[in-house]
Amino acid sequence: NKLQHSDISEIRYAHLFANSIDGVSWVTSKNFSCSGAAANYSFLYMLFKILNDVEPSMILECGLGQSTKLLSQFVATHSNSFLITLEESKEWCDYYSKYLIDSPRFFIHVNPVVSIKHKGFPATKYKDVKHVVGDKKFNLIVNDGPCGSDFYSRIHILDLLANNLADDFIIIIDDVERSGEKQTM
Question: pLDDT tens for residues 93-147?
């Protein structure tokens, strides 16, 4: 079996990520497991660079997982930062919380997913995202949930664009190579 170019690239990012976080004081746990449906190493490397270099203060994460491990460590050690994580599965939150760093500035909200129609196509999104985020202005949004769909995946991001972005912001849409996420982008 030959390695695909993407596999080789991901191996390189795994090494780059590991070398980059080595010796960084705020990365207190290096227990990352990037396999299956989890965020991959290129994603975590990009997220690490944003956290380490930009130091965002208001972070919204949609979908709890490997990125939450990194984000919770950042927030726990940066007193001017806040993290709100949306996740549709209470069971996943209960199971996964043992891998996260607790902080009074880190909030997990279990939000159900609703089915909608967008431009005539079926899509899913978190219910009442605006109710959770209120009028907060985010300078980093990590859009990696809920689970992807065939059309307009993770479309709830559109609910946030008008009123919930800081003057300077970064939005990451994971899995953007898939058709549903491309449509949303």
Answer: 999 999 999 999 999 999 999 988 989 988 888 898 988 999 999 999 998 877 7
Q: How far is CA 39 from CA 65, 75, 161, in A?
A: 8, 19, 24
Phi and psi angles of residue 33, each rounded to the nearest 5 degrees, phi first: -135, 90
- Which are the contacts of 61, defined by CB distance < 8 A and separation ≥ 6? 67, 68, 71, 83, 84, 85, 86, 141, 142, 144
Q: Which residues contact 19 (CB under 8 A, 6 or more apart)?
A: none
Closest C-alpha among 90, 91, 43 to residue 69: 43
pLDDT digits (tens, 9 = 90+) for 64-84: 999 999 999 999 999 999 999
Rounded to 5 degrees, φ, ψ at 144 are -130, 30
Angstrom distance (rounded) from CA 49 to CA 60: 17
Whether the Cβ atoms of residue 110 and residue 140 lie closer than 8 Å to each other: no
Write the single-letter amino acid at 96: Y
Give the chain's length.
Answer: 185
- Are 113 and 125 a contacting pair, CB within 8 Å? yes
Two tokens, residue 177 = 């190579």
> Does residue 152 contact residue 184 with C-beta atoms inside 8 Å?
yes
pTM, two decimal places = 0.91
